[in-house]
Write a structure and sequence with these properties.
This protein has about 325 residues and is an alpha/beta fold. The chain has 11 helices and 13 strands. Strands 3-2-1-4-5-6-11 form a 7-stranded parallel β-sheet, with helices on both faces. A two-stranded parallel ribbon has the order 7-10. A two-stranded parallel ribbon has the order 8-13. The relative contact order is 0.14.
């Protein structure tokens, strides 16, 4: 039974990943600093099942000033999910926290892995590194041109991973997530906002004309990619992780109307800085090197997220 480290363990993807690793027989040491980007109560809810399992331990710590060497003791693999999230908030006065939590924290973690002799590091990157590319589908060899400060910091951390592979032989693998969704999705993300507004009878706010498209990836598929990267993938490699469900925002709302039996009152707003027009992942490399398989279609995934949020709102546990 190996001990693995999951940073950002109280988050959307981190908590699901920790559960999967425990189900596969591993011990999980989770790390989270509980930033105030969204309510701590939501993150604590993500941890409810994990806290009941003796194979899980949680360290409340900030990677930028924590004893990284201590948290890496006896750890065989690191899943670095922690980050300051959100494209739209990464501008202006907020940039400092993105540079700190996405770049400096990653450098300190990698330096700790070098000193501790830790094995593989699987880093959670983002499709935001591509920017508003006209090359669709997006391939890992495309020139990254992020159009948001958030994307810049995620790309910088990717480069740090490669540097530590080349110079210190730490086998890093970076996974570029394409719009992950599903139960426990962050409250600032589109599907969560759409579903909640519909359930509460409020207008659904859409930035742009709604014809922008995204490659949506269900949470269990993103988690499976991480699990496979624990033992597969070229050291220093970068892999697209997409769901194969390129869908417009308007089409998503059509499907949510069908799932919920409710009509969405659509309120269109100006497009936001840093938002890209289209994304679609070419996952050929991940399929070949990781054995990655996309399993959950968009409609099934939306049903699961809708059911989760409907139950939370009904119980009064989500405010």
């Amino acid at each position: 039974m190996a001990t693995v480290l999951v940073t950002g363990a109280a988050g959307f993807i981190g908590s699901h990943l920790a559960e999967r690793l425990i189900s596969e027989g591993h011990r999980v040491r989770g790390v989270d600093c509980f930033t105030d980007y969204y309510p701590r109560a939501d993150k604590e809810a993500n941890l409810e099942g994990l806290r009941r399992d003796p194979r899980f331990e949680l360290l409340e710590a900030d990677l930028c000033d924590a004893d990284v060497g201590g948290m890496l003791r006896e750890v065989s693999c690191v899943f670095h999910q922690a980050a300051q999230a959100g494209v739209r908030r990464s501008w202006g006065k907020y940039f400092e926290s993105y540079a700190r939590n996405n770049v400096l924290a990653t450098q300190r973690l990698l330096e700790g892995c070098r000193e501790a002799g830790t094995g593989r590091v699987v880093y959670a990157s983002s499709s935001s590194v591509y920017g508003d590319s006209k090359e669709i589908p997006l391939r890992e060899g495309s020139l990254p041109r992020p159009v948001s400060p958030y994307g810049v910091t995620k790309l910088a951390a990717e480069h740090l991973c490669v540097l530590y592979t080349v110079n210190y032989r730490i086998p890093t693998v970076s996974l570029r997530y394409f719009t992950v969704y599903g139960p426990r999705q962050r409250p600032d993300m589109a599907f969560h906002l759409f579903i909640r507004a519909m359930l509460e009878g409020r207008p659904v706010e859409i930035y742009g004309d709604g014809e922008q498209t995204r490659d949506f990836t269900f949470i269990s598929d993103a988690v499976d990619a991480n699990f496979r990267a624990m033992t597969s993938g070229e050291p220093g490699g970068v892999y697209n992780i997409g769901g194969g469900s390129r869908t417009s925002v308007n089409a998503v709302l059509d499907q949510l109307e069908e799932i919920s039996g409710r009509k969405a009152s659509r309120s269109y707003k100006d497009a936001q800085k840093g938002d890209v027009r289209h994304t679609l992942a070419d996952t050929t490399r991940a399929e070949k090197d990781l054995g990655f398989v996309r399993r959950v279609p968009i409609k099934e995934g939306l049903k699961q997220e809708h059911l989760w949020l409907e139950e939370r709102l009904a119980s009064g546990s989500h405010r």
